[in-house]
Each structure stands twice: as C-alpha cells, then as structure tokens.
Design a protein that fits this description.
Elements: H1 2-22, E1 32-33, H2 35-38, H3 47-54, E2 59-64, E3 71-82, E4 84-85, E5 90-91, E6 102-113, E7 116-122, H4 124-128, H5 140-157
Parallel strand pairs: 1-3
Antiparallel strand pairs: 2-3, 3-6, 4-5, 6-7
Length: 158
C-alpha cells in the first residue's frame, strides 16, 4: 500500500513537471523580420549575405529566363512593425513583460538577379489586401438622391 502511494506521487509530480515545462513557451510559428533588420540590408548583397542577416525566408521563388542566363530569385519574409507613442516618442511598452504591441504586418519581397540584390518591396498581393478602416458614412440618403437623379437623367436622354 505504501509503495502504491509513492508511485502515485511520483507519477503526479512527473506529469506536473512535464505540463509546466511545456507551457508558456511561445515560439513563433514563422520567422518575422522588423524594421531594424531592414537597415542591415544593402543593394548588391548576395543571397548568402541576406540569409546571414535575416535567416531563412518564409518562401523562395526562382525564375530563369529562356536562355538560362538570368536567374531572378525572390525571398519573401513576414514583416511587422512596432507601435510607437508619438507624444513621448518612445516605443509603447506592454503591460506584461514579454508582450509587444505590434503595428502593421505584411510581407517583404527581396529581389535578386544573378545572386545580387537589386531591391526589395512590399509584396503586392499582401498590399492589395490591405483595407482602410474608415467609419461608415451616414450618406445613405444622399446616395439614394444621387441614384434617383442619375435615373432621371438617363430617362430624359433616351
């Protein structure tokens, strides 16, 4: 009986140790780069130099021309900014340690031709999906009047 109680306690302690050891480790699911990382990158760098500064990209695309003379390589990274408080010109600090207030997130595309960086830009697909968060206008009545005026003009023309 005493032996079974010791085994139960050991099992309980081991299972609690495993649960608490695994909990709380917030490892990012994908690599992110930030504004400070972009300052390390210069035009003319090779793919190996960019990989050394930024790490592995989220996605790599290689395109070769018809004669296999020019190879275009694109590295795509996830990019995010931090929110800043303009009044005190400091980065907003989160209430809890380890938390960060993230601002805008998008993808950055680095373009190489024959292993030489020629530039980088915000991914056009991600940029086109951006929305402008403006409040809804209360112009429903004005829109209805405009529609009626357009219909009257169309009817008079025909």
């Amino acid at each position: 009986m005493h032996f079974k109680l010791i085994i139960k306690k050991i099992t309980l302690i081991a299972s609690l140790f495993i649960v608490f050891n695994c909990a709380g480790h917030n490892l990012p699911a994908e690599p992110w780069i930030q504004t400070g990382d972009l300052f390390k990158i210069k035009i003319g760098m090779t793919t190996a130099e960019v990989l050394g500064q930024l790490g592995e990209p989220l996605f790599v695309e290689r395109i070769m021309d018809e004669d296999d003379e020019i190879t275009t390589t694109k590295f795509i990274y996830s990019f995010r900014t931090k929110k800043y408080n303009s009044e005190i010109n400091k980065q907003n600090s989160a209430d809890k340690p380890g938390e960060t207030n993230w601002g805008r997130t998008t993808n950055i595309q680095f373009i190489f031709i024959n292993d030489s960086l020629i530039g980088w830009e915000e991914d056009k697909l991600t940029l086109s999906m951006a929305t402008n968060n403006k409040p809804k206008s209360g112009g429903g009545t004005l829109q209805l009047i405009g529609l009626l005026l357009n219909l009257i003009i169309i009817i008079k023309i025909f």
